[in-house]
Design a protein that fits this description.
By secondary structure, the chain is α/β, with parallel strands linked by helices. It has helices spanning 11-17, 24-32, 35-39, 54-70, 75-87, 96-118, 124-137, 169-173; strands at 45-47, 89-93, 138-140, 151-158, 161-168, 183-188, 194-196, 202-203, 207-208. Helix 2 (24-32) crosses helix 4, helix 4 (54-70) packs antiparallel against helix 5 (75-87) and helix 5 (75-87) packs antiparallel against helix 6 (96-118). Bound molecules: S-adenosylmethionine.
Length: 217
Amino acid sequence: MERKEQQIKSEHRVATFGEVLTARREVEAMLDLVKNEAERIDSRFLEPACGTGNFLTAILERKLKTLRARYRTKKADFEVQLLSAIGSIYGIDLLEDNVRESRERLFDLAVQGYKDSIHKAPDETFQQIIRLILSKNILQGDSLNGIDQIVFTQWTLVGYRFILEEYNFKSLNNNTPEPGQLFQSSLCDAQHKPVYIPQALKRYPPIHYRKLLEGNK
Ligand SMILES: C[S@@+](CC[C@H](N)C(=O)[O-])C[C@H]1O[C@@H](n2cnc3c(N)ncnc32)[C@H](O)[C@@H]1O
């Protein structure tokens, strides 16, 4: 069933949280500005005030189109690339119900994308892996004043395995180096400024995509 588009949930929420959700047409127009990135399966996006997931779901839809075109024949390839797509999408919202709704919408979309390509529903373990990634990527928090309390997981695909690294959001945002850490003088950007390399809080050994639930329960 088509989801009814709703831009305002209540006057109270507009006044208190500035919650006015972006309409589909504007979301698509904005994503068109970064069309190639939005279609690329593993390009990373963060929505720091994600609401109910209007941008996040539109990004996943675009990535799913690429997936369907490229990975229809072999189930394992489709599955691992689908997880890579989901793992590349991040969101934060102050409100818990919005976080829940964003995760649910992304989950439903991922399952539908799976059915459209593989012609059957994903098994229970795979569904739980999708939920695990969403629980780590779509977070309840304050992206203005609480970034030191937000920890993101980076999912890097190597073959059929993922390398998981955890980063504090504050360290990803940091422009001021901390002693001995952040800037690598040997690497420069196009303006010849030293490149900032954030340090991971934790880095896990590569793990097969089907085993992601192990150690993450
Ligand atoms: C204008 S709505 C936009 C939602 C979504 N980006 C969209 O375009 O549909 C703003 C959202 O930001 C959230 N929000 C407000 N202040 C926030 C903060 N400091 N940290 C995280 N989320 C915040 C609200 O709960 C609300 O869901």
